[in-house]
Amino acid sequence: MKAFKSVFDPLDLAIIERVYEAALAQFEAHRASSDSEKDEELKDALRERVMACAAMVQFEFDTLYDRVVGQPI
């Protein structure tokens, strides 16, 4: 996420990081099993989704979180 520092201000980056962490916890809680390779794929896909959603609109935590977890990975 450091590559986006020139695009997002520090508060935006803090919100993005918190949304990522909350969404990751949500997705992990609903997974039946853990697999290291699939876990990394999930994290990569989630990072991409968070950044894509953040780039589309002005956001606050709740709005961004709802966009991120509102569709399956």
Question: How would you describe what is shown here?
Answer:
The chain has one domain (8-69). Helix 1 (10-29) crosses helix 2 and helix 2 crosses helix 3. It has 3 helices and no strands. 68% of the residues lie in helices and 0% in strands.
- Largest sheet at a glance? none
Strand content: under 5%
Q: How many angstroms does the end-to-end distance come to?
A: 19 Å
Shape: elongated
Radius of gyration of CA atoms, rounded to a whole number: 12 Å
Total beta strand runs: 0
Q: Helices and strands: which structural class? A: mainly alpha
Report mean pLDDT, rounded to a whole number.
84
The helix count comes to: 3
Order of helices and strands: HHH
Q: In which range does the helix fraction lie?
A: 55-70%
Low-confidence spans: 1-5
SSE map:
Blueprint: H1 10-29, H2 36-56, H3 61-69
Helix pairs in contact: 1-2, 1-3, 2-3
Summarize the model shown.
With 73 residues, the chain is mainly alpha-helical.
For this entry, give a set of tags.
about 70 residues, mainly alpha, about 0% strand, disordered N terminus
